[in-house]
């Protein structure tokens, strides 16, 4: 178990099916917080709710990798930067420990809700096969968004995640650490001792958020993809999340170029 993040907290181990039974929250409101790792156990312990943790084979912390696809002019990044109410992100998500890959489209609606749809992805993470591209076009068309003529891989984010749920089903929490963002042969890394905590819910402030506020932590504007692009592209401004990114990310210099890292 991941005692480093959860301290003395002993959440109930849950399978993925059990996690989804309690709180699938595919359509949801998402709010993010940057929390020092050493402050997290107290926040969670004071939550007042019974908590479960995704556990597979005795492990409750898993490696994720997301390859993002965008247009040549970075339409998805620009829409996010401008705060457009209707926008999307497209990515191949790899669950590294189980060697599972899904193509996902995250849609942001006018009411601030996030909807995520996905299909199985076959092949390399930096290539969109015909089935995944058709899924993207159908999804965007059905959502009333324009279908881009060309999309290509533009950034990769790797990180480690622990997933919690309240057994009442009111919230789903993801705890992300060890974030590395890569683009164009360069990378940026999350500072040690920082946790990106995301609260997914269908309603207002949750029990966890009230405890976060009591400890002085407030919601931040932060996107792994957008922060990576803004940090590694000097010509791109990222004022909406600049303060949050500066507080948790630091440049890590050039990286060895691989097919999935050779982005333009």
TrEMBL record:
InterPro entries: VTC_domain, VTC_sf. Pfam families: VTC. It comes from the Bacteria. Residues 28-232 form the VTC domain. Transmembrane segments: none annotated. This is Polyphosphate polymerase domain-containing protein. It comes from Nocardiopsis coralli. The lineage of its organism: Bacteria, Bacillati, Actinomycetota, Actinomycetes, Streptosporangiales.
């Amino acid at each position: 178990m991941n005692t480093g993040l959860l301290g003395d907290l002993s959440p109930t181990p849950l399978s993925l099916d059990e996690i989804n039974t309690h709180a699938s929250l595919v359509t949801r409101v998402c709010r993010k917080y940057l929390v020092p790792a050493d402050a997290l156990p107290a926040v969670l312990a004071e939550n007042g709710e019974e908590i479960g943790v995704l556990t597979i084979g005795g492990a409750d912390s898993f490696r994720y990798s997301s390859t993002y696809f965008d247009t040549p002019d970075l339409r998805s990044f620009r829409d996010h930067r401008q705060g457009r109410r209707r926008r999307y992100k497209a990515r191949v998500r790899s669950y590294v420990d189980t060697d599972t890959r899904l193509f996902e489209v995250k849609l942001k609606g006018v009411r601030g809700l996030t909807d995520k749809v996905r299909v199985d992805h076959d092949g390399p993470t930096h290539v969109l096969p015909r089935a995944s591209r058709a899924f993207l076009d159908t999804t965007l068309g059905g959502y009333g968004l324009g279908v881009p003529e060309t999309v290509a891989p533009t950034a990769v984010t790797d990180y480690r995640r622990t997933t919690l749920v309240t057994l009442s089903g009111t919230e789903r929490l993801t705890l992300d650490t060890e974030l590395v963002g890569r683009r164009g042969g360069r990378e940026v890394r999350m500072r040690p001792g920082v946790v990106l905590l995301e609260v997914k819910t269908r309603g207002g402030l949750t029990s966890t958020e009230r405890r976060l506020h009591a400890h002085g932590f407030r919601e931040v504007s932060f996107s792994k993809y957008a922060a990576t692009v803004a940090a590694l592209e000097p010509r791109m401004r990222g004022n909406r999340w600049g303060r949050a990114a500066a507080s948790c990310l630091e440049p890590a210099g050039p990286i060895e170029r691989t097919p999935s890292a050779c982005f333009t």
